[in-house]
Amino acid sequence: MRVAAILLALLFETVTWASGAKAQPAPQGRAEATPTVENGAAEESLPVVILLTSGKRPRQLLRLRFEEGATRTLTMTIDSNVRLSASGQAELASQSPPLITRMELHVDEVTPQGDALIGFKVTHAAVADTSALDPDTGADIGQALDSIVGTQGSYRCTARGLVGDVRIDTPRDSSPMLRQLLEDLRQSLRQIAAPLPERRVGRGAKWRVESELQLDRVRAVQRSTFRVVSMRRPIVHVDLAVEQSAEPQTMAAPGIPEKEWPELRSLRSTGGGKARWNLEQLGAVRAQMSAKLVMEIGVRDQAAREHAMTMTMRTGLTMLSEPSSAKASADPFDAQAVQAKIKTRLWRIRECYQRELPNAPGLAGKVVMELQIEESGRVSR
Q1: pTM, two decimal places
Q2: Residue range 67-80, pLDDT digits in tens
Q3: Where are the beta strands (DSSP E) in 34-181?
Q4: Rg (Cα) of the chain, in Å, rounded?
């Protein structure tokens, strides 16, 4: 999943900061209504794959191979740094804490053509530490991310890595931020596999993938270029470069009156990285990428005055896929990892304290906890 949670929070905070508008708070608690399966507002067309050069001989077809019943755990970690400037305002900078998302993938069905129906479930979604964020923003982000844990759905993936028919169970009365997070998850799933060329390729081969996507509240075009560094089937190492751009458009912002919605004036993003694929294991990838995005936005305040705003965001993404059977005890005990995990839930304690503070202005104290953690990672006492 891309940086939706952090970016949305910063964007809404910035729109408020630049225009004086006040966004409505997100509803409290997880929605309990019967879920509905959604394909998204508008299903995008499949990406276009253009082979630029076939590379050196020997050449081979790059195809994914799925095994019914196979499972994998996919972990994505995102770091971002955002700088915002607006006319008449001091520059605002923010270093967002790492956003960690983990999903369980499982192959439910494989067709005679080698295509697969893949189910997924979000098992973890949290920022490593919300202490650097504004308390209200941190609480909103923590609550929204916490609410997508347990989300399930499915998608179809061809042997060439073309993903479609993404379906997500969405609570009917979910908040606007939760719906945006789930839409962002849907977009990420459409890019979970890299589209492969139709023809045989060898070392040095290059191909470009052109696709339409929804970047948070912006309709954009993405062009990704892949170059094969080495290949010894089923392992393929690639370098990749990514460009994103968007035409001027209105950015819908739930909680803000429509007449005050921001106007996108320009968007440009460039980045790149490296990846290692295992074509014979579901979602088997190790990847590291970084990107820089520059977005120019126009906002109107309640008095209809226009303000120009520029956002520059630098993002780092790592993806790691591993067998679902991997045990927690395979890694040595890491006290910092335990502390980081606890910090992802501190917003709950802060929220409880802030709720009681108006009733007892002098409320203060110290809490000491002792935890007993088994080798499996389970807290037993």
Answers
A1: 0.74
A2: 999 999 999 888 88
A3: 35-38, 48-53, 71-86, 92-110, 116-127, 152-157, 163-171
A4: 22
